[in-house]
């Protein structure tokens, strides 16, 4: 909380190469802070923090409207084309402690592509990586962001039909994070109204968590 009329939410985006982490971060911020483009190798090699301007009309508490600020930490992917798992883990862990060490983290957003199936090995490695970063309570502070939802829609899948046809691996992951998930339409995510819908969903997850934060401290191994 910066003041009584303003709320700041702290988010980190995590995921594999080319899932759209940086693009999702830009959508949440309403900016182009993070470098995002198609590439045969991992684009992001270090962590960077983006901050939004004050956003109005999104959140009310105790009958009063609050201005919202969003802080997003963009991270290198795991697996990474040029960095080891340990390098990525230590880089992200250090950045989380540096940027959110005092205020805490509201949500980690695990970015997955809605147009690609989630395989068991991939899910296991991803979950293990998040556990190493966030600790044993990671499930309470993680939500899934399904990008490229427009491609799934083009293929004839509504949100309901998509989940009905989804792999047991994805459904198990969504269940473990208490069904905190959001479909992100890459074509519409730059639209102000679409961004407001996504932010309201994230705030609802945070509200369901009683506005708790995950406190992160840097630990060397």
TrEMBL record:
Upper classification of the organism: Eukaryota, Metazoa, Chordata, Craniata, Vertebrata
PROSITE patterns named among the record's database cross-references: G_AIG1
Pfam short name (any one): AIG1
Database matches in InterPro entries: G_AIG1, GIMA/IAN/Toc, P-loop_NTPase
Keyword DNA damage annotated: no
Protein name: GTPase IMAP family member GIMD1
PANTHER family recorded: GTPASE IMAP FAMILY MEMBER GIMD1, GTPASE, IMAP FAMILY MEMBER-RELATED
Keywords noted in UniProt: GTP-binding, Nucleotide-binding
Organism encoding this protein: Himantopus himantopus (Black-winged stilt)
Domain AIG1-type G: 6-221
């Amino acid at each position: 909380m910066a003041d009584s009329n303003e709320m700041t939410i702290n988010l980190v985006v995590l995921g594999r190469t080319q899932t759209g982490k940086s693009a999702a971060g830009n959508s949440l911020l309403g900016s182009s802070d993070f470098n995002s483009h198609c590439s045969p190798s991992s684009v992001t090699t270090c962590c960077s923090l983006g901050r939004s301007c004050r956003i109005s009309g999104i959140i009310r508490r105790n009958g009063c409207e609050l201005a919202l600020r969003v802080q997003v930490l963009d991270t290198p992917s795991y697996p990474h084309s040029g960095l080891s798992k340990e390098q990525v883990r230590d880089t992200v862990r250090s950045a989380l402690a540096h940027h959110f060490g005092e205020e805490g983290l509201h949500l980690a957003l695990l970015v997955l592509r809605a147009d690609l199936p989630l395989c068991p090995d991939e899910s296991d490695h991803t979950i293990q990586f998040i556990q190493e970063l966030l600790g044993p309570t990671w499930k309470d502070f993680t939500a899934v962001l399904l990008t490229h939802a427009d491609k799934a829609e083009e293929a004839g899948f509504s949100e309901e039909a998509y989940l009905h046809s989804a792999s047991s691996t994805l459904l198990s992951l969504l269940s473990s994070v208490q069904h905190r998930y959001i479909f992100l339409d890459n074509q519409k995510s730059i639209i102000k109204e679409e961004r407001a819908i996504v932010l309201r969903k994230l705030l609802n997850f945070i509200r369901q968590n009683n506005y708790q934060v995950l406190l992160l401290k840097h630990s060397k191994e």
